[in-house]
Amino acid sequence: MLLTQARLFDEPQLAALCLDTIDKNTPDALAADGFTDVDRDTLCAVLERDTLRIREAKLFQAVIRWSEAECTRQSLPITPENQRAVLGPSLTLVRFPLMSVEEFAAGPAQSGLLEDSQLVRLFLYFHVNPKPAIPFFDGPRCSMTGKEQVVHRFQHIESRWGYSGTSDRIRLTER
Predict the structure, then answer these.
(1) pLDDT value at 151 more than 90
(2) Which value, in Å, is the radius of gyration of the alpha carbons in the chain?
(3) Model pTM?
């Protein structure tokens, strides 16, 4: 991935452009084959961003893919213990509290990557008030809350644009 090279050769402007592109195209960037080739420091640089446009459950799936590839690179069997070891501190950058309890129960809770004490604390976080202290950040990423919606405003595009003097706006309402 170009971001890894930009960080390696101390090119902050190029690294910033790469991160901006990842922010704008997060699902595609994390699905790319090159994502699993980045080093752990670069993975952490991506995971700690507040501007990623992706649901946390999908981000966790990408982290699992990365950990499997890293285990393979290090000639380790792909086990939850080895995945946890290669992930190191990057696992705490996944914002599990942003998932729905269903997403958490169906994915991370069954992955074996989290320790039992972390699982208990996260399930308590989902179900009790006041919320217990957890080692995972719960700040939102890029206002990714609720169901993702796609709006196609124009049915076709013409080469010219006219202005009639009236307001041009979109109103979105929930039904």
Answers:
(1) no
(2) 20
(3) 0.78
Query: CA–CA distance from 155 to each of 14, 94, 152, 161, 168 (Å)?
Result: 36, 38, 7, 15, 16
In whole angstroms, how far apart are CA 53 and each of 20, 109, 149?
11, 23, 12
- Decide if 95 contacts 56 (C-beta within 8 A): yes
CA distance 174 to 154: 20
DSSP code string of 19-40: HHHHHHTHHHHHHSGGGGGS-H
Q: What 8-state DSSP symbol labels residue 166?
A: S
pLDDT higher than threshold 70 for residue 120: yes
> Which residue in the block uniquely carries the two structure tokens 């202290």?
133
Tokens of 166: 């009236």
User: What would the pLDDT profile of 122-145 be if each residue is shown by its tens digit?
Assistant: 999 999 999 889 999 988 887 554
Kind and range of the H or E run holding 161: none
